[in-house]
């Protein structure tokens, strides 16, 4: 973040007037929640196995009109769409030894950090553990690791972090169950 961003969004209460000016003449958006994250992958099969076995996602059916190699997964109110890499498309740094919390990543909220850490150990996935201790409130635990294509994933207990709008009180819309798609249960017979 540049110096301007640091000044604008500094400690709680500082810069609140400047931040609130950002919201002038900005209508409330009809957005409900993050729907999905899409990832290019070297191997759809390897990525599906990772997201299912490590993170507990469930493979869901894709629309038949999507005639390219890919897979859709869903759980925890979010979808992960995997698309087979074609040609020379670039990937992030796939070096599993480079785990930088400041790098691009997607983060999942976790209710049992110890269980998740045991899972990573059992799956022999290299990870980095970090704890952020704020002056007020409980510590925030984080686990960082990469999927088979080098995309970084964070697991955290960020519910311990108080959500304080910077000059935008009343503009945050918390999701209800409405954003979750309907679930169709079918029994598959062999």
UniProtKB/TrEMBL annotation:
Keywords in alphabetical order: Lyase
One Pfam family in the UniProt entry: Glyoxalase
Domain VOC: 33-158
Tagged with keyword Signal: no
Protein name: Lactoylglutathione lyase / glyoxalase I family protein
Gene3D superfamilies membership: 2,3-Dihydroxybiphenyl 1,2-Dioxygenase, domain 1 (3.10.180.10)
UniProt cross-references to PROSITE patterns, sorted A to Z: VOC
Taxonomic lineage: Eukaryota, Viridiplantae, Streptophyta, Embryophyta, Tracheophyta
Domain of life: Eukaryota
GO molecular function: lyase activity
UniProt keyword annotation of Ribonucleoprotein present: no
């Amino acid at each position: 973040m540049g110096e301007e961003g640091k000044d604008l969004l500094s400690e709680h209460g500082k810069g609140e007037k400047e931040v609130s000016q950002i919201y002038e003449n900005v209508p409330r958006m009809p957005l409900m929640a993050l729907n999905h994250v899409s990832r290019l992958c070297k191997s759809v099969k390897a990525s599906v196995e990772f997201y299912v076995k490590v993170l507990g996602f469930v493979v869901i059916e894709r629309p038949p009109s999507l005639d390219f190699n890919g897979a859709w997964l869903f759980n925890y109110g979010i979808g992960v769409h995997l698309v087979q890499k074609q040609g020379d498309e670039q990937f992030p740094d796939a070096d599993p030894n480079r785990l930088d919390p400041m790098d691009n990543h997607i983060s999942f909220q976790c209710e049992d950090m110890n269980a998740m850490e045991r899972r990573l150990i059992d799956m022999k996935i290299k990870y980095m553990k970090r704890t952020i201790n704020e002056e007020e409130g409980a510590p925030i635990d984080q686990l960082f690791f990469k999927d088979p294509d080098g995309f970084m994933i964070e697991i955290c207990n960020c519910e311990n972090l108080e959500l304080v709008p910077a000059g935008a009180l009343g503009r945050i819309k918390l999701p209800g169950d409405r954003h979750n798609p309907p679930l169709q249960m079918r029994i598959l017979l062999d």
